[in-house]
Specification:
mainly beta, seven-stranded mixed sheet, globular, single chain
Length: 129
């Protein structure tokens, strides 16, 4: 059974940084497309960043040049480095993974939540002004 567990959220002042981690178990990260999404109260779940099975990345315009997605050598941990955080970045951040058996998709398409089959429980990020 696939499990994704996020950590690293917290409270930070505007301009600060956080690094989120997502540990995948029951699932081999190699060859998998994974992504980070976020959802603020009363809003849709939005794509933030994705790392495809062929190592392409894509970022939503509102995090581009501030956030960076990466994975470790074993590819069982996905990271999201978040810099220059803004109050509007406050949300629950979710890690997601796409079933390896599914066809490859373009990185930009992988920013859509429908591309994913597995989700973590989320970690809260709060940015104060």
């Amino acid at each position: 059974q696939v499990q994704l567990v996020e950590s690293g959220g917290g409270s930070v002042q505007a301009g600060g940084s956080l690094r989120l981690s997502c540990v995948a178990s029951g699932y081999t990260g190699s060859g998998s497309t994974m992504g980070w999404f976020r959802q603020a109260p009363g809003k849709w779940r939005d794509g933030g960043a994705t790392l495809t099975s062929y190592s392409a990345t894509a970022y939503a315009y509102y995090v581009k040049d501030r956030f960076a997605i990466s994975c470790d050598g074993s590819e069982n941990i996905l990271y999201l480095e978040m810099n220059n955080l803004k109050p509007e970045d406050s949300a629950v951040y979710y890690c997601a993974a796409r079933d390896r058996a599914l066809p490859r998709i373009p990185a930009i398409q992988a920013l859509g939540h429908r591309a994913y089959d597995y989700w973590g429980q989320g970690t809260q990020v709060t940015v104060s002004s």
